[in-house]
């Protein structure tokens, strides 16, 4: 059985609650990602998406005093998964709730990874490529028999 742990990104780029919006925006651009988990001492406390940052930066100019922090805009009370959850269940959770990602936590709430729509698209591509490869092998074998 394929699990979330088999697909998730383990080296997660994160923010702290006190980080500013511009730091979050810079990290998204630098790492080419769309979601930033927010942690406090390794524990997941929130999530900031690319869309959240765009909205917040439009509303709050970087020159605002005091500056807006990630804690002011992050989503809280997140749906999470564990590394041992079947990948199929995580896919349904993403689809049912229209999430772009699911933070992966251990039993104590420590962030251990993140699984995104892109991870599942990569899986789908591998499965489709394998299926297509199997069809070509079968077609080739049938052609040589005649």
What would your notes on this structure say?
This protein is α+β, with helices and mostly antiparallel strands and 146 residues long. It has a single domain (4-145), classed as CBS-domain (Roll), CATH 3.10.580.10. 47% of the residues lie in helices and 18% in strands. It has helices at residues 4-7, 21-31, 50-59, 70-73, 87-97, 117-145, and strands at 15-16, 35-40, 43-49, 101-105, 111-116. The strands form two sheets. Strands 1-2-3 form a three-stranded mixed beta sheet. A hairpin with a 5-residue loop joins β4 (101-105) and β5. α2 (21-31) packs antiparallel against α3. The radius of gyration is 20 Å and the shape is elongated. The two termini are 39 Å apart. Mean pLDDT is 90; it is low at 142-146.
Provide a short characterization of the protein structure:
The protein has 146 residues and is α+β, with helices and mostly antiparallel strands. The chain is built from six helices and five strands.
Task: Please describe the topology of this protein.
Layout: H1 4-7, E1 15-16, H2 21-31, E2 35-40, E3 43-49, H3 50-59, H4 70-73, H5 87-97, E4 101-105, E5 111-116, H6 117-145
Parallel strand pairs: 1-2
Antiparallel strand pairs: 2-3, 4-5
């Amino acid at each position: 059985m394929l699990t979330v742990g088999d697909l998730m990104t383990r080296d997660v780029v994160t923010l702290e609650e006190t980080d500013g919006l511009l730091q979050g925006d810079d990290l998204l651009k630098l790492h080419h990602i769309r979601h930033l988990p927010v942690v406090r001492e390794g524990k997941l406390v929130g999530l900031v998406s690319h869309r959240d940052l765009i909205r917040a930066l439009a509303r709050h100019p970087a020159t605002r005093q005091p500056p807006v922090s990630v804690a002011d805009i992050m989503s809280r009370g997140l749906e999470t998964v564990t590394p041992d959850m079947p990948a199929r269940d995580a896919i349904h959770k993403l689809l049912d709730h229209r999430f772009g990602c699911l933070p992966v936590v251990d039993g104590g709430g420590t962030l251990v990874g993140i699984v995104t729509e892109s991870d599942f698209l990569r899986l789908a591509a591998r499965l489709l490529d394998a299926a297509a490869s199997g069809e070509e092998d079968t077609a080739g074998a049938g052609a040589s028999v005649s």
